[in-house]
User: What shape does this take?
Amino acid sequence: MFRHFNFYFGCGILLIVVLASLLAPILAPYSPEEMFVGPRLSPPQWAYPFGTDMIGRDVLSRVIHGASLTLYVGAIAVGIGLSCGMLIGLTAGYSTNWLQGALMRTIDVIYSFPDILIALALVAFLGPSLRNAMIAVGISVIPFFARITYSIVVVERNKPYFDSGKVIGASRLRLIFCYLLPNIIPSLIVIGSLGFSHAVLSAAGLSFLGLGAQPPLPEWGALLADGRNYIRKAPWLMFFPGISIILVVLAFNMIGDTIREYIDPRQRWRR
Amino acid sequence: MSNTRQPVLTVENLSVAFSGRKGPATAVSGISFKVYPGEMMALVGESGCGKSVTAMSLLQLLPSPPAIINGAVYLEERDLLQMSKTEIRSVRGKDIAMIFQNPMSSLNPVLTIERQLTEGIILHENVSRKNAIQQAKKNLNLVGITDSAERLSQYPHQLSGGMRQRVMIAMAISCNPKVLIADEPTTALDVTTQSQVLSLVTDIQKKLGVSTILITHDLGVVAETADRIAVMYFGFIVEQAPTEVLFDNPAHPYTKGLIAAVPRLDFFIEGKKIPERLVEIPGIVPSIFNAIKGCPFAPRCALANNQCNQEKPPEVELSPGHTVSCWEVSS
Assistant: This one.
């Protein structure tokens, strides 16, 4: 029962966010960029449920329009990070020769830098924009995904069932796709959903520093940054985008957990 | 066992070493044995004496490097060690099958029993999925699993340890292999299940006439099941003999020590004198990093003399099929 609650709660929030991003022009009461639709720094009230910001823009409209940006950032960054990281981790974990050492040492070197620093350097190189921030965040999380995939692969490939696959006479591709992948994908899904939240936060951080979403884009991280100066006077400027980020992150973690339980036959009896 | 028949598996001078930081560590040093059709041969020895390494190297399962493998292993005429990766893959599961010691984790946890049982059949024999499932059901019945239809749709974690080992055996025999290697198939099971699985392996071996190499550290296990026993110590085969000969007339001091160390329930039943204390073999196995000149057992052997420490004893045949490597016996 509780598990189902987790799943439905996560899906519910995700559904709301997806609907909000799809139907933003209809749902949002005002344009996200229109200034002085109300008084400056108005607290939440009936006309402006989430309040207004320092130049009188409606925060609710901005949060609704920001939903698609947030989903987009997370999806692209995790997509880049997970696909490249998984490929590197699988290759390194499966091979036993020099390739393993070369790949993992390179990854270790990159991993030793804080990933926000790598993202910063990449954005400085590519130029500040939301698109470049996504790419930069995606690249910066590759070592994270690669390392985790690698460690799972090494554990799995040393389990006896992998040997029994070999003993049956399974080919290398078969070993990878029928033995390794199904056993590591449940973990990767959970890590992917965690990485999603990480990516959203990193992108928000870049936007906060002015290197990601450029004003007046209503990206949630940028909204947080905008509201920072007014945290005492107008806490709702940070509260609503912040809560939105938390809820989306929570939703992804809950869904990821449930999917893992569903995919992993060892845990199926709990359903 | 008559030696006039052609052996199905011939191991000639097989040695396996691992390159390590302290230099090469020799796990198996030049062992030779033959397995004849339809017989059960046992490799007996204590932990770390090279039994499993021998088994793994037969099918090229040891990653090489770091393993350095020399010698020859003939499956009938073909040398397994010279085979390419593709060739050896067609031998694995088809001609030589293997059962591992840990049934709890030797099955792929995310595939159903059906998938795992049919995998080898589909891979090696040109049959449809439907026929493969029929074959899988038959094999499950053969290993004593009766509700095969239900079992096929289950996952490994839904089976008990003994059940999983039965599935492993069913997998191993699915392509009618010529040789079955059972690497301590009963180690991880409790005693009652052990005897069931053991008699199952013997049964299958008799029924299908498949040559079996049974690897174990338990002399009691092989006393009743094996036709022939090879005793391994420190990477050497120190004595080889038909089972009755080995138990009645052990020649090598190590074999004698091993047999003396087994608690004899049969003495108790027959009213013979029971030793008050079990006999033990003094000392420990030397490190495999140390190169040894003489007989590997010399440091622990009560009969050891100067010659034992200096020269390796040659293999001598005491009676047909009974060979031993010991200076004390050959002189």
Remarks:
- The domain at 9-95+177-330 of chain B is CATH 3.40.50.300 (Rossmann fold).
- Chain B has one domain: 9-95+177-330.
